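Entry 12.
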Amino acid sequence: MPQGIVCAPQPEAVEAGVLALERGGNAVDAAIACALVQTAIDPQMCGIAGFGSMQLYLPDQGQHHFIDFHGRAPAATREDMWEDIVISETEDGFGFVLEGGVNDLGYQSITSPGSIKAFAEAIERYGNLTLAELLEPAIEYCEQGFAVRTHVASYWNLVEAAGRIPHIERLRAIPATAKIYTREDGSIYKAGEILRNPDMGNTYRRIASAGVEDFYEGEIASKIAADMKENGGLLSGDDLRDFQTEQSEPVWGEFHGYEVATNPLPGGGAMVIEMLNILSHFDLKAMGHNSSRYIATVAEAMKIATVDKDRHMGDPRYVDVPLNVLLSAEHAEKMATRIRTGEKTPVPRLNSGADNKDTTHVCAVDDMGNCVSMTHSLGNPSGVVTEGLGFMYNGCMNVFDPRPGRSNSLAPGKSRFTAMSPTIVFKDKQPYLVIGAPGGTYITMGVLQGILNCLVFGMNAQETVAGPRFCVTSDVIDVTNRIPRYIQSELESLGYQVRRSHQSFGFAGVHAIRINEQGWDGGADPGRDGMSLQTRPKP
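Predicted 3D structure (C-alpha cells):
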C-alpha cells in the first residue's frame, strides 16, 4: 500500500485523498480525489467549471511540469465592451466594479471552464486509479449531503465593501442556484446543517460513465450551451469544445541555496520569484521575524512586485511580458537598493474597493517522491447553476481590466492574470517544501511568507503556515491581529499606513508539506477548516 500525506482546507477532502492512496493511488490520485471532494463540499471556492494550476513532480515517471487550466474569455468577448461602465478597481487589484455588476454575477461573468478536463488528464496520464473511482466520494457527499463548515457559512454571509455584490446573492439570484442553496423563505443553511446536491451527484455520475468529453462535447455540453444562449451568456458550445489545457515548464528561482519551482504566467509564480530575488539581498533572519524592519522590507518587495504585475504581467499569448528583466539579478539588486535607501514604492489604483478570496488548494506527497501542489478556484463565483446540473460556474471575467490597451484587458480566448502560485522548493535537488494557498491577490504574499518562515527561520510546516501574516497589495500594510500593536506603531512612525484586521489568521490560507530526513510534516492554515493527514501504517 502506498504511503503519503495530504493537506488541504477541508477535512473531508483530505480524507478522500488519503483513502485514494490507501486504495493503491499515488500523489496524483490523492490530489484529484481531494480536489473533487472540494468541489462538492466547498462549492463556491472551487468546482468542475473552474480553473487552476497544478504542479506535478513525478520522479518515478520522469515528469516535472504544470498542467495549467486557466479560464479563457469566450470568443464573443470584445475589448471595449465594458469600457463605459467602469466604477472602480478593487484596492487589492483583484477585479473591477462595473455598473450592474455584469462581470461579477450572472451569465456574462463566466469564462471557459477547465478544472474537470485537467483533473481527467492528470489521472489518465499519471494516476493509478480511474476518474470514475475518484469521483465516488464526491458523489457520496453530493447525494448524502455534507455538514456546512464554519468557513463555508462565513463566506456565504460575507458582505464586502465598495460595490461588490453580497455573497448571499450568488446563492439566490439565479433560480436554479437558489433551489440548491436556499430554503423557501430565502434563508441559507447554517454551519452544521446538512446540504445535499443530488443534481451535482447526477452530473458526476454522468461524467464517470460517459467520460469527461461529455462535459465539453456531449449531453452536458449541450445543456450548458443552451442555458448560456437563453440567458445572454458569452460562453458558447464552441468555446467548450475548443478548450484545451496547457502543459508548461516551471519558472525557477534560487533563494539561500534552495531552488524554487513555481508556475508560469498567467499564474502568480513570477511574483513569488521576483520578491524572493529582491529579499535575497537582505539578512532577514538578523532583522527578526515580523519585526518592524522585517515587515517594512518585505512590504516594499510586495509593493514592487504588485506594481510590476499590474503594469506588465498577463497572458503571455497576448502580452509581451519582460520576465527576463523582472526576474533578473540586476532588477533585484536595483530594487533592493531602493528599499535600503528608504524609498517607498506607491501602488496606483483606479479607485478603492474590496478583495475576494474564493479559491482552494491541495498538497499531496507519496513515498515514491511524487509531489503535487494544485490551486483551483471559481474565481469570483458567477452564481450561475444550469438547471439539473448542480455545479456553479466560475466568474473569472470580473478580474479582466475593462479598459482597453492594458496587460489584462479583455480579449477573446485570453486568460486573466491570477495570483495562484502552487510551488515546490527543492533542497539538494530533492523536494523540501510543497506549498500553496487560496486567497485572491493575497496568495503570492501568503506563499512568500510561508517560504520565508520555513527557509529563513527554520519553521516546521505547521509553524510555516500559522505564523502571523501581513499583506501589501496597495499603499496600506494590512496586518493580522496577532501582529503586536507596538510593531504597528513602529511601522507608522516610519511613515506607513497600517490597517489592523480583526482576524487572528488571514491574508491567504497557506497549506504546506515539509519533507526532510525524518519524513513528512504537514501544515493546514488555522484560519481555514482544514487539516493534514497521513496514510495509516502498513500492517
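Annotation: The first strand starts at residue 4 and ends at 8. The mean pLDDT is 94.
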